[in-house]
Amino acid sequence: MFEDKNPQRTPLSELGEFKLIDHLTTQFQIQKTSTVKGIGDDAAILDLSDDQTVITTDLLIEGVHFDLSYVPLKHLGYKAVMVNLSDVYAMNAEASQITVSIAVSNRFPLEALEELYAGIKTAADLYKVDLVGGDTTSSTSGLIISITALGTVASNKVVQRSGAKPNDLLVVSGDLGGAYMGLQVLEREKEVFKVNPQNQPDLSMYTYIIERQLKPEARKDVVELLDKLNVKPTSMIDISDGLSSEVIHLCKNSQVGMELYENKIPLDPQVISTCEEFNIDSTTVALNGGEDYELLMTIDQKDFPKIKGNPNLTVIGYVTEEAGGMHLVTRAETKVPIIAKGWNALNPQS
Ligand code: ADP
Ligand code: MG
Predict the structure, then answer these.
(1) High-pLDDT (> 70) share of the chain, %
(2) Would you tell me which of 1, 46, 112, 205 could form a disulfide with 108, CB atoms 3.0–4.6 Å apart?
């Protein structure tokens, strides 16, 4: 980390656009029968069956969404795919194809893009999605990546943000706050590195949370688990901006209120210990830290026996009438209104 491990630097101008695209995409194989034609024509051809199609896009800008001084390009490629797949899974859909568009400045050698695409390929292989196209252009300074993901879902299985109803249970997958605390550690080490570049940090105490930040996993497994358990959530959203902001999205879209229990919020021990070290409240981190890419959903009470005791799913609250409002019930049993403090795309530093 923090080091240029790949000393070879081939200028992009040596290849030209077509050779570059070829070079970067030649390793990718088509896995889905729904991909009729992938890269290589003016447009890809897909045959997406009788199910409904979901499509989602994310745009990532260097200096705004990622910092290459501590994000290895391979991880960036992987994460850029995850961010999109997570949105597909949040619809209860199966991801099938992606397109990847990049703008690069001449600051980036071919080897840097090879790293980026290695991460994209690892993600595509693991999650079984086909890379079917994209665009390549130049930028004056930083790196820009835009990924679009497509998926399919039977029309009776699609889950929107709008279906939550009073008395449903509020359920979250995995644990929260790790990605944010991983970022805090990386930011701190970056400052240390600036002062003393010889000093390679020992990050062994923070492996889980750094992994949560650098290599998040979209919860495809949770969508498959729900299907296996025969549970269709009444509403669902992925946690990109922090629990409180996603709770608000579900409530607004479903016109309901929610009670969320502080003592039920799942936290990894490493999140708790790092919060203590940084003197940050772990509940605040779970509520307002982003990028965990877990799934937040509501389920009907009748489905509770099906999920009860499952280590991947935690009941953290319940749905109320809209007039009830949105509250965190604290450990001291006081009710605090939930307000959006999540990461704001228009003002990321705040
Ligand atoms: P056009 O000029 O018609 O947009 P391009 O030369 O940009 O075509 O693209 C040629 C093929 O390569 C298309 O299939 C396109 O989708 C694909 N492609 C271009 N850039 C990328 C990229 N960065 N990643 C993956 N596929 C790409
Ligand atoms: Mg093009």
Answers:
(1) 95
(2) 112
